[in-house]
Amino acid sequence: MINLSEPLVGEEEKQALCSVIDSGWLTMGERVTQFEDAFARLHRMPAAVAVNSCTAGLHLCLLANGIGPGDKVLVPSLTFVATVNAVLYVGATPIFVDIESEERPHISLQDANEKITSQTKAVIIMHYAGYLVDLLAWRKFADENSLILIEDAAHAPSVGEVGRVGDASAFSFFSNKNMSTAEGGMLLARDPSVLERAKNLRSHGMTTNTLDRHRGHANSYDVMRLGFNYRMDELRAAVGLVQLAKLPDWNARRRHLSELYRKLFAARCPEITIPFTRDQETAAHLMPVLLPSWVNRDQLMSGLRSAGIQSSIHYFPVHRFSFYRELFPQVSLPNTENYHARELSLPIHPALKESDVEIVVDTIKGLIFP
User: Fold this and answer.
1) CB under 8 Å to 370, separation ≥6 — which residues?
2) Which of 14, 72, 140, 177 is catalytic?
3) Which of 51, 107, 311, 355 satisfies CB 3.0 to 4.6 Å to 76 for a cystine?
């Protein structure tokens, strides 16, 4: 089977986990702090806050920046549902924004500008498939309209200026991401006070943590605000430290494979097109391609499965899920819907071989031109 994605875990991760078990301290402690520091350094930021998921990170990005009931937040629909769910978590209203085009499936600055109102307080941009949005353009848009700019960076760790331009950003370490701790996430913020609020909110709003009290550095604690249990444990942090060291090389490998896909499709099956451009900065988290309109995608995916090749669709537009259709029945996003109808995600991960990419391309060609 040529897998769509594949976590790379081995002896180093096993040793890291064993060292935590041998230490006798499993909950949030020194390794979490070390992981936060290392992640912040890699992104050239002064500090970071580790959480138990990117979803928790997005929730805290909004909450720590004061977004709440009565506020509206511009969001993409071409994203994982958590991006939009986080807006509802804080009692705000998501305003769905179309993508630019099928060739550039990023949240549209033009459509966002047309949908902004006096109630709009924030915008969430998402680096779809690992390809970076135009951060400087969005920073200018946010500043001109007094908006909080939040980056959903689940697909784009350690690339370009990700994490440094938005007011806050959230990253994912889920099992299919560029680096993984099985579950887990990280939050960055430009304002130290936002980061401190997020740090307090992730642990029930408490003023001290369990390790401080265990070591006798504190005898009690206060609760400053309504918080959550969004903490990361030592086991995940230990794995994260190992994975983080490998992330730059893994990103480079993904970019190489993405470029190989582009070359092979252009030469062997030009009817298949690929969004974005070769010079677009990317972590190559996903390998999206666009099928010709005459191709039956379900049949193609079935054929690939029979050939031992996994594929998927990223994403089903959030505004078309039953839950969101009931909340926002009038939403229409033509570019997003057209893109979804033609998109297919192909295998890409650091363990993928060049010969695997050739098999995928040739199999697709054989299936659409039998």
Assistant:
1) none
2) 177
3) 107
